[in-house]
Amino acid sequence: MRFRMTSFAGLRVGLLLAALLAGAAAVAQTEGLRIGAVDFGRLIDQSPQARMATEALQEEFAPRQREIAALQRSLQEKQETYQRDSAIMGETERLNLEREITAEQRDMQREQTAFIEDMDIRRNAELTRVQEALIQEVQIYSRAAGYDLVVANPLYYGSAVDITEEVLRRLEADFAAEDTGAAE
């Protein structure tokens, strides 16, 4: 019972806070403050910088993915051989094949776990790098456009305050300029 009252009280406080912020935003707009909102998830999904980072990660980890796929095929072949021929194999041959299969299963699981951990570490590092670049671009755009406040991922915002598209255009232009500069 106490939990429900606490969550209800939290809901009331949250609603009150949202109403106050909405009122403050309305007052700020009427007093000449420029407020913007940006959909950060959309920036991450659609920015060329994020796409390039994703492609680079896929390229970096492709050889290891191929190695794991080869291990899986080898293991699959040995398991099929065991299922097909175990009845006609000698005791020693059958036991050796069972040991090989067990050892390969362990190796493959170890490789998969290491691969996933390494990929997660690199993905998080790249995501952090991309997020920092996106934040910097939002700040540069906001200052240049004269915004007093920019909110990332608000619960609701109208199209009049949405600056996501403008920031995306700048990101694309910056990326094209970097790409052109690198090609020269």
Describe this structure in words.
It is a single chain. This protein has 184 residues and is mainly α. It has two domains: 1-33; 34-183, Skp domain (Protein Binding, DinI Protein, Chain A). The protein is built from five helices and two strands; from the N terminus they run H-E-H-H-H-E-H. The chain has a two-stranded parallel sheet. Helix 4 (91-145) packs across helix 5. The radius of gyration is 28 Å and the shape is elongated. The N and C termini lie far apart (69 Å).
Percent of sequence in beta strands: under 5%
- Please give the number of β-strands: 2
According to CATH, the homologous superfamily of the largest domain is: Skp domain
Percent range of helical residues: over 70%
Q: What is the average of the pLDDT values? A: 86
The secondary-structure class comes to: mainly alpha
**What gyration radius follows from the Cα positions, in whole Å?**
28 Å
**Secondary-structure element series:** HEHHHEH
CATH architecture of the largest domain: 2-Layer Sandwich
Indicate the overall shape: elongated
Total domain modules: 2
Unreliable spans are 1-6
CATH topology of the largest domain: Protein Binding, DinI Protein, Chain A
User: How would a crystallographer describe the biggest sheet?
Assistant: 2 strands, parallel
- CATH structural class of the largest domain: Alpha Beta
Strand order of the largest sheet: 1-2
Could you tell me how far the N terminus lies from the C terminus, measured between alpha carbons in angstroms? Answer: 69 Å
Put simply, the count of helices is 5
